[in-house]
Amino acid sequence: MSKLLSVGALFGAAILWSTPLLAKDMVFTSWGGTTQDAQKDAWAKPFAKQSGINVLQDGPTDYGKLKAMVESGKPAWTVVDVENDFAVKAGKDGLLEPLDFSVIDKSKLDPRFVTPYSVGSFYYSFALGYNRDQFRKKTPKSWSDLFDLTGFPGKRTLYKWSAPGVLELALLADGVAPDKLYPLDLDRAFKKLDTIKPQIIWWSGGAQSQQLLASGEAPIGMFWNGRIDAIRRSGVDVGISWDQNLTAADALVVPKGTVDKEAAMKFIAFATGAQAQADFALLTGYAPTNTGSKDLLKPDVRATLPDEHTQGQVNLDMAYWAEHRDEIAKRWYDWQGK
Amino acid sequence: MTSVSIVERGGGPPQRRRRGGGGFSHVLPALVLLLLVFVLPVLLLLLRSVTEPALGLQNYAELVESATYGRVFLNTFLVSAVVTAITVVIGYPIAWLLVILPRRWADLLFGIIILSMWTNLLARTYAWMVLLQRTGVINKTLIGLGIIDEPLTLVNNLVGVTIGMTYIMLPFIILPLVTTMRGIEPDLLRAAALCGAGRLDAFRRVLLPLSLPGIAAGGLMTFVMSLGYFVTPSLLGGTSNMMAAELIAQLIQSLLNWGMGGAAAFALLVLTLALYALQLRLFRRAQAGRA
What we know:
The complex is a heterodimer.
Chain A: H1 2-15, E1 25-29, H2 33-51, E2 54-58, H3 63-72, E3 79-83, H4 84-92, E4 114-115, E5 118-131, H5 143-146, E6 156-159, H6 166-173, H7 186-194, E7 200-203, H8 206-215, E8 220-224, H9 225-233, E9 238-253, H10 261-271, H11 274-284, H12 299-302, E10 314-315, H13 318-337
Helix pairs in contact in A: 1-3, 2-11, 4-13, 6-7
Chain B: H1 2-11, H2 22-51, H3 58-65, H4 67-100, H5 103-118, H6 121-132, H7 137-144, H8 158-182, H9 186-194, H10 199-227, H11 231-236, H12 244-254, H13 258-290
């Protein structure tokens, strides 16, 4: 019931939307937690100092809310951090403002993460993580090891939601060549996942994934690379394998009809600049989308970032996902619930 | 209606305030707000469920035909029923204890219960996750004591959801039960004893029937709240026992399939209301049969 009410309140809020923003304010929305803290420190604060535009923080990102705001005609959010496949789909569905590339310099931006409606905000990899306490003699190396229950016994943890990642790694583990992944062979992927299904614990958020790995509850699994790095920095003996790490990016988008388009473009231009991207990478362990940021980072920091592990790296196909999200979701939840 | 007479005797003759013609205009702003914030959005959601992606009942057809949605709904009602039953069984003696304990101790116990209600829900859920996991305190203690050899699977399944939700729902059953039980004259139990009733008989034939309104009120509240529960089942449960609220949130927040989300939300609302009506009727009949 509570969920229903909050959904109701959402619509109510959309109808009653009337928050007047100060002329020099904009609202940046992201996923909360340490990631948004880093975005605030690396992007929002220096941007405010430079431009005089105050950046208010909101969150977490909620696609339902974004859609409700756009439909109400007066989105309170100026710039939003979203997943890349959502950015592609939302751009097509008319929920986003096209970006102004006369303000945002895309010549230095990783072209994999640039669309007319979005630019990469940072990029991460799904990588294999494991707790060394549980695998002393032999350490897991590849996605196939994730499916090897005799060699690496115990629970494994995977991302719970229907999103790019899990199906791809199942296919890779089953021997599909990286360049033959798409279109995804769903039957084959689910069949492979069936072999470890009773041993899977699903994580639905970053903190949960860290808890599972650090406690040894699930000593092996797929994780956002930054999360493994954060556990390691906190002193837990965890390992990471970059073999066939799966890349995806978050993207910065501007909801259609936002009050201050100009500020939005300026903010995105700043946030994707070489320095801001390097500062963010330093704080999070996620890779910069600006190719000029590398030179601003020390070698030991760079070694922990996905863009230093491009050998064998596999790009998750956001255009494919944007196209097939609904149909995959249906199969996904059906299979998961069985 | 036994219960009513008891309450009235305890509280003296009820002083009813007459509501004149002016009463309605006083509540009008609140009513408008209520309509705007609660009723209108539900109607809008309903509208979406028959207009997205196209005009028609295809969303409802899919809801009925799809095995996934059916399973989620069945599971939602099952979990809610189990949680409600366990909550009543555990909450009842606690409530009675609160009534008969000396004031000071009762206040302390009451404070503990209220305090748990005020603690952040997410924090409490995470705490259970840590306690219940294979490498958690409970399993380690049991293994250390030699009671079990292999850790029990207490979380990421129905067991975890039931434990977590029961814990969170307990105050909601204890509070209405205490209110009802406070209205029961202790003399009645003494009278039962004088008439030769043993403890069990006194409980079964006096205390239980008189506290039934509390059980019904608290049980219903727990059940209805459980139906819409989101955070706890999402974190403590596995994917095979997903509950309706999580599915709806997923449809609306991530997949932006508002038509389907609306249909699922509406189905949950209607089923909840239907169940509420049924329970009220059963309860009235039980009361009438007793009177």
